[in-house]
Design a protein that fits this description.
heterotrimer, A alpha+beta (about 525), B mainly alpha (about 350), C alpha+beta (about 170), A: about 525 residues, Ubiquitin-like (UB roll), Alpha-Beta Plaits, Rossmann fold, 3 domains, six-stranded mixed beta sheet, 15 helices, 24 strands, about 20% strand, B: mainly alpha, two-stranded antiparallel sheet, binds iron/sulfur cluster, binds FE2/S2 (inorganic) cluster
Chain lengths: ~525, ~350, ~170
């Protein structure tokens, strides 16, 4: 047995835990949940909610310093006179922990009763309902009837903590998670409690409301509905939402996320644990930037700019593919360029590159970053674009169009070339999701889908390849880009790919850095690729 | 020429009357069954629901004619309901509906075709109906209609035999196969039903008639519990209603046969109804008497339908082949002996 | 189990007496009293806690009681309910409730009148009242929206007005 582990027993289960671990985490190792509110694995320990109380004892040692054996043949355990909090008790060799003893259950019932004394009956209008720890534990340890007959303490309700967050103080259980997060993680010491006893109230220092790019994480970690996100407020009940593991497409960090959707609508994004990427946080910029998925202006049908009619004519998909293929056949191969987007998946870029061996570029996208999560590179897949053979210097293409070397251009989800240049092209094919200057100039528009509607991979700034999963079906009339591109390639004499797996398999053959990978190896948390 | 015109007119009148009676039999059936179940029956369309048949007909015509995709032989599929309905209408032409009508200075016979082998024609034609059902079952190209069709053909062929054999004693007594002679004979002597030696014939005939028309308790071809709707499962709209009309027309014809063979046709056993009519009114009264007698039998049909549960298929076949056929043969011999000993012709 | 077939007498085996008895039975029913209810003119009496169509109610002060918690939408077996959550009007007398349905749709084609929505509602805002003959000429017409449901539901006398003192 290595030196840095200890052996202990939790509810009759033998546990081997690393030294220094607390009891909540150690119990988690063997699938035992110790209920808790204030403890959060990524925050410092406050120990103020008292929900995690457990019974802890050590074996009684005899005169020979050996554990004494009782008359029933079992080790005699000396339990402490008082219960201890699991969050702030570290494991020790030989420790015996009871998480379900009558004493513990009684203590939890007491804690729950105190927490609920002044708690409002807000569940029907509370956005947290359904994912509320208070609800969950009151099912386990709460009473159906309240013994409290006095008037409840009233505190400010429906107050704006800042523009993004609504605070309801009556619902707050004073766990201080939000305070610790803002102070220790987001780096703005702005929240605190005022008043005393049952009048304790969470508030922010005057004129110092949270204004970092990470505020919305306190909504996630608040165990109750005291902090709610204005963006998600009263939008939908969480129990209707389907959770799909995804990746935030807004910067090169590639925070792991969960997309919450119902039917065809995405309602919110929340961070997903991944200690190699984003721990359990994400930035507000990325979190809120998903509205384009359900944008009413989405392109929903393939169309052609008719020279005779002088306007756009909608096409069916087979007809659009046929016409585009005919035009591409006629176009000269060495005058064809592609512009990929580093917001597209690696698979799409790989397929797109096959159209033009000579000219392929993506559009860099830079913004201010910070030292925590937000990256200066706002493209989620610049590494993927590079690996599949796209250069970041798209001026070559602009120049090529200007001096007439490039006559045909395929653009995948970018809007960077000026319209004057686009007008010089003989054939412009655009795959995009929203109308813009480029789609306006396009001869053919092939509507694609957003990151929430497709599968594929992104490679982040640290060369980690991570997987997207479709949360909602493609908008009616649109098609995932990898299917559009592979349909075009197949008509032009290439291979026809039916699934993203087939594309990925071919890509691992052609891109050495990805050799040996497949989508299931990437899994939910991604793997690092050689660069 | 005159013959053609008169016959055409007779056919038209006969069909009109027949279809009206059939339509109102349906109404009657719904009313009677409702009464027997302590309900009121159709009462919304017209007084006492009397316009219900019209509404039903209209509805039938307006309904979508569904042609299931699995039907491959449309010709046979369409022929089915036609074959089920037409024979019943044709046989009605051989039955004397009355004596004669003095009209426009002519004596018009109240029968479309006064055939000297009318009984044979009636039996022969009415057995065509089985083809309709078999065709429908076959052309529907699905299992329930098929089973219904198979059952029905077996049943009708079996009872065809009983039906024909059971009335042989009647012909033996009369010595003719013409239905007009039959009525005439009964006006001169007495109704067949009043001659006790003809009772077994009548009993077997009426039961076989039920079986022949697929009515309860012998409605196995369309036993809902087992066969959905039997041979007409795949039919809708007018095609379905043709089966429906066919069934009721067959009931009518069978009732007419019973009246003609055993109950003196259009006659009543006293003057002036026991001899061919001399005035128009009496002629019309004869027709009315005939229809009234038929009505009694139609009521019997309905009454039995809403009283007696369906028999099992093996019981049906056993009854036909093991009991009725031997019985009819014995009956022929028995009546032959009776006739030879006491009178005869 | 062995079922003993009863021994039938000759008359029973003949079947005819039973047939005649049956015929008499049906015939004797013809003149009897009829039980038919002439429906549209003659309405059936509704007894006790009759469960008709689900409808939304207001409290005695005229507030919409529903707070769009969407529990009924969740519990409804045929998924007949669709709630579109929204905000109470700022500054209105019921602003403390914060939430209300901006639309509330019950698809009466789907509703099976089971009463689960009434049972689950934490606000006692939805009740199965006495309308039993909901009908319409189109599917669209059978989607009952918030206004219609509130109009049908009317006001419910109710002592506990939980949101009043919030
Ligand atoms: S915080 Fe939890 S318990 Fe409190 S009102 Fe919201 S859902 Fe209910
Ligand atoms: S607002 Fe939420 S996270 Fe903050 S102290 Fe209250 S309960 Fe805890
Ligand atoms: S009564 Fe039942 S089926 Fe109808 S809306 Fe309520 S829960 Fe749904
Ligand atoms: S009717 Fe009741 S259960 Fe349904 S949303 Fe409204 S408050 Fe919730
Ligand atoms: S989790 Fe241990 S005291 Fe709150």
């Amino acid at each position: 047995m290595a030196d840095n582990t200890v052996n202990l027993t939790i509810d009759d289960k033998a546990v081997v835990a690393p030294k220094g671990m607390n009891l909540i985490e150690a119990a988690k190792l063997v699938g035992i949940e110790i209920p808790h509110y204030c403890y959060h694995p990524k925050l410092c320990i406050a120990g103020n909610c008292r929900m995690c109380l457990v019974d802890v004892g050590m074996p009684k040692l005899g005169a020979d310093r050996k554990p004494e054996i009782g008359s029933d043949g079992k080790m005699v355990v000396m339990f402490g006179p008082k219960l201890v909090i699991g969050c702030n008790t570290t494991v020790a060799d030989g420790m015996v922990v009871l998480t379900k003893s009558p004493k513990v259950v009684k203590a939890r019932e007491g804690v729950m009763e105190f927490l609920l004394i002044n708690h409002p009956l807000d569940c029907p209008i509370c956005d947290q309902a359904g994912e509320c720890r208070l609800q969950e534990f009151s099912v386990d340890y709460g009473k159906a009837e309240s013994r409290f007959v006095e008037e409840k303490v009233h505190k400010p309700k429906k107050t704006a903590l800042n523009a993004k967050i609504t605070l309801d103080d009556e619902r707050c259980i004073l766990c201080s998670r939000c305070i610790r997060f803002m102070r220790d993680v987001a780096g703005q010491d702005c929240l605190g409690f005022i008043q005393r006893g049952s009048h304790s109230t969470l508030t922010c220092y005057l004129g110092n409301e949270p204004k970092t790019n990470y505020d919305l994480n306190i909504v996630d970690i608040c165990p109750v509905g005291a902090l709610t996100s204005n963006d998600f407020r009263f939008q939908q009940r969480v129990w209707f939402l389907k959770q799909t593991k995804s990746i935030c497409p807004n910067c090169a960090t590639g925070c792991n996320t969960v997309i919450w959707s119902r039917e065809d609508v995405v309602y919110r994004q929340t961070p997903r644990d991944n200690n190699d990427v984003n721990q359990c946080w994400m930035c507000d910029y990325g979190r809120i930037n998903y509205k384009f998925i359900n944008d009413p202006h989405r392109l929903t049908t393939p169309s052609v700019k008719s020279a005779t009619l002088g306007q756009r004519v909608n096409l069916t998909w087979p007809e659009a593919i046929r016409q585009v293929v005919d035009k591409l056949r006629a176009a000269k191969r060495d005058s064809l360029a592609v512009i990929g987007s580093a917001r597209a998946t690696t698979e799409e870029l790989y397929l797109l590159k096959k159209f033009s061996p000579s000219f392929a570029a993506y559009i860099p996208r830079v913004g201010t970053g910070d030292n925590f999560l937000l990256n200066t590179d706002r493209n989620p897949n610049a590494a993927g674009a590079m690996l599949t053979g796209f250069s970041s210097d798209y001026s070559v293409i602009a120049d090529g169009i200007a001096d007439g070397k490039i006559k045909t251009l395929i653009v995948l989800g970018e809007d960077a070339i000026v319209p004057e240049l686009l007008a010089k092209l003989e054939l412009l094919i655009v795959l995009d999701i929203l109308p813009g200057k480029t789609t306006e100039a396009a001869h053919y528009i092939l509507p694609g889908v957003t990151f929430a509607e497709k599968s594929g991979t992104f490679i982040n700034a640290k060369n980690r390849i991570q997987r997207l999963n479709p949360a909602i079906p493609p908008l009616v009339g649109t098609k995932p880009e990898h299917l559009i591109l592979s349909a075009l390639l197949a008509e032009l004499g290439g291979k026809r790919y039916a699934t993203i797996q087939e594309v990925f398999a071919d890509m691992t053959r052609d891109v050495p850095a990805l050799a040996g990978l497949n989508l299931s190896k990437i899994g939910d948390s991604g793997v690092e690729v050689k660069s | 020429m005159e013959f053609v015109v008169i016959t055409m007119a007779k056919i038209a009148v006969m069909l009109g009357v027949l279809l009206t009676v059939v339509a109102y039999t349906v109404w009657l059936e719904r009313k009677v069954c409702a009464w027997m179940q302590d309900r009121v029956g159709p009462n919304r369309v017209g007084p006492f629901g009397l316009l219900q048949p019209l509404a039903d007909g209209l509805k039938m015509m307006l309904k979508e004619d569904v042609l299931p995709r699995h039907i491959t032989d449309k010709a046979l599929y369409t022929l089915g309901p036609l074959m089920a309905m037409v024979p019943a209408l044709v046989t009605a032409g051989a039955i004397p509906w009355g004596s004669q009508l003095p009209l426009f200075g002519r004596q018009i016979q109240c029968v479309v075709a006064n055939l000297n082998a009318a009984v044979l024609v009636v039996f022969a034609t009415s057995s065509f109906a089985v083809y309709g059902i078999v065709l429908a079952g076959w052309a529907s190209n699905s299992k329930y209609p098929f089973l219904g069709g198979v059952r029905s053909s077996a049943q009708m062929i079996s009872y065809e035999v009983c039906l024909a054999l059971s009335v042989v004693p009647v012909f033996m007594q009369i010595g003719s196969l013409s239905l007009c002679h039959m009525v005439e004979y009964q006006t001169h002597h007495t109704w067949m039903i009043f001659m006790p030696w003809q009772w077994p014939s009548f009993l077997i005939f009426i039961i076989s008639a039920f079986a022949e028309t697929n009515r309860t308790p012998f409605d196995l071809p369309e036993a809902e519990q087992e066969l959905v709707a039997g041979y007409n499962t795949e039919y809708s709209s007018m095609k379905f209603s043709m089966f429906f009309l066919g069934e009721y027309a067959a009931m009518f014809v069978m009732s007419a046969m019973m009246v003609t063979l055993f109950f003196g046709g259009w006659s009543l056993p006293f003057a002036p109804f026991n001899r061919p009519a001399t005035t128009l009114w009496i002629g019309l009264a004869h027709v009315a008497i005939f229809l009234a007698k038929i009505l009694v039998f139609l009521f019997l049909y309905i009454w039995i339908r809403w009283t007696i549960p369906r028999v099992r298929y093996d019981q049906l076949m056993a009854l036909g082949w093991k009991i009725f056929i031997p019985l009819t043969i014995v009956n022929i011999v028995f009546v032959g002996i009776v006739l030879a000993l006491w009178g005869g012709r | 189990m062995l079922v003993q077939r009863p021994k039938l007498t000759f008359w029973e085996r003949l079947y005819l007496p039973q047939v005649l008895q049956g015929l008499w039975q049906t015939l004797s029913h013809i003149p009897r009293k009829k039980f038919t209810r002439q429906y549209p003119e003659e309405k059936p009496p509704l007894y006790g806690k009759y469960r008709g169509a689900p409808e939304l109610v207001r409290d005695p002060d005229g507030r919409v009681k529903c707070v769009a918690c969407q529990l009924c939408e969740f519990v409804c077996p045929p998924k007949a309910i669709r709630v579109v959550p929204g905000f109470r009007k700022e500054g209105a007398s019921d602003a403390s409730v914060e939430k209300e349905p901006s639309d509330f749709i019950i698809n009466m084609n789907r509703c099976i009148f089971c009463g689960f929505c009434e049972e689950v509602c934490p606000e006692e805002a939805i009740f199965l009242l006495r309308d039993f003959s909901v009908s319409g000429y189109s599917r669209e017409e059978m989607q009952f929206h918030k206004d219609k449901l509130l109009e049908l539901g009317g006001v419910r006398e109710d002592k506990i007005q939980k949101w009043k003192n919030k």
